[in-house]
Amino acid sequence: MTFSKIMDHSFKKMIQLRDYQETVYQDTIKAINNGSRGILIQLPCRSGKSYVMAKFVETCKGNSLILAHRNELLNQHNELIEGLGLLNKCRLASVFTEVNHLGEHKNPLVILIDECHLSEANSYKKIAEYYGCIIIGFSATPTRLNGDRLSLYDTLICGVSVKYLINQGAIADFDYYAPDIALDLSEIDMLGGDYNGKQLNDLMFNSAIYGDVIESYKRLGDSRQAIAYCAGVKHSKKVCKEFINAGISAVHIDGSMNKTERKKIMDLYRSGYYTVLCNANIISEGITLPNASVGLLLRPTQSLALYIQQAMRVLTPDGNGKKAVIIDCVGNYQRHGLPDEDREWTLEGIKRKHKTNNEDGSFTIRNCPECFRIFKTASKCPYCGHEFAVKGRELQCMEEVRLRKINEQEKIAMAEHKKKQRMEVGMAKTKEDLIRIAKERNYNPKWIFVTAKRKGIKL
Ligand SMILES: [Zn+2]
């Protein structure tokens, strides 16, 4: 299958892509021409990936199928595709519906999958196998929780970085804080690559950190509208209650509420009626809240995808140069680095975790004990000027690296010294040479006789 068979560029193009989107689009076409059957496109949240998707729909010679796992996402794609007048050549379906209705529709030429880091699930595989067509997946975080490869794809195409989008104004800039809040996760089991959700919900529900969380919000969040990401519904309700008790307007939302109820809450939040929106990951991709500018991370997670999705949600620009604040109360930055860290994605999956130490053993990012800001290794906090005294685990790491380096240097020096000595003996031609060497090196006189015999020097 080549580009010319499935893509049609002969008609007048409607969709004008931004430069980096066009590059990704063209690279995908090249990959298809080279025989690729599954292309994974990595683009950060808010990079306009739905336009890239629409471009494929526009230029496809036949029908496309857009798959997503959440209705909010599907509605968003539907709105764009309909607005562009492309609904006649594209079908949109939830993966759960599609897998139960295979064979009831015309076969698509291309399947476009949103949030395709989830496409290792059986339903996606079944759909892919049934249609056997070209698959183009999109994800901001093309990695599985267990680090294994995403098997539907043979080609990975990476778009722009989060930093680039911040510089372009497509994503709001942010300050990242990690208040010093004691939390012991050592008793929590792992389940499918992340912390056991129920145990986590219980632990966070019972933890004594509510006062600290509200204090941190008051000090760092500056009464601005916030989204609190909690460990579970029970935890989220409690967080909401604590905010209300502290005199801050808050509301809880979860998936068990009906559509009307959820819409009412969201509308009131958008209008500014509520200040803090508490949830357990229901406010995710597909929901745009430009007014929300404080992200409260209250759910520890091992999932890079979940972390990035939650941290990025408050980075929707408001058109007025908004600077967001992320308050990480659970140390997620220690597990994953900062949300705008440059990451190397591979189809093999990420086996290597976030790099915690620099070459010299110092931490890659430090947490200022004065202002709680997170910054790249420096001796002084770039925000408040606090002079950083290296101690504890970091100091130990740096010392270990220093000693290892000294050992390595000593080994090299020793090897060179020995080589020199061997060369000197090799160049010795007379009895006098050997005597001098033996004296200098404090050798046993027997060495002179043995060496002379070996080298054929007359004594
Ligand atoms: Zn500081």
Can you describe this structure?
- It is a single chain.
- The chain has about 450 residues and is of the alpha/beta class.
- The protein has three domains: about 5-160, Rossmann fold; about 165-355, P-loop containing nucleotide triphosphate hydrolases (Rossmann fold, 3-Layer(aba) Sandwich), CATH 3.40.50; about 395-455.
- About 40% of the residues lie in helices and about 15% in strands.
- It contains 16 helices and 16 strands.
- It has a six-stranded parallel beta sheet with strand order 3-2-4-5-1-6. It has a six-stranded parallel beta sheet with strand order 7-14-13-10-12-11, sandwiched between helices.
- Strand 8 and strand 9 form a beta hairpin.
- Helix 8 runs parallel beside helix 10 (about 235-245) and helix 15 (about 430-440) packs across helix 16.
- It is globular, with a radius of gyration of 30 Å.
- The chain starts with a helix and ends with a helix.
- Zinc ion binds near residues 368, 383 and 384.
- Zinc ion (ZN) binds near residues 370, 373, 384 and 386.
Number of helices: 16
Percent in strands: 5-15%
Structural class: alpha/beta
Ligand set: zinc ion
**Can you say what the CATH homologous superfamily of the largest domain is?**
P-loop containing nucleotide triphosphate hydrolases
Q: What is the CATH class of the largest domain?
A: Alpha Beta
What's the architecture of the largest domain in CATH terms? 3-Layer(aba) Sandwich
Whole-number mean pLDDT = 89
What CATH calls the topology of the largest domain is Rossmann fold
Q: Compute the gyration radius: what is it?
A: 30 Å
* Poorly predicted segments: none
Q: In one word, what is the shape?
A: globular
Let me know the largest β-sheet: 6 strands, parallel
Strand order, biggest sheet?
A: 3-2-4-5-1-6
Helix content: 25-40%
Distance between the termini: 84 Å
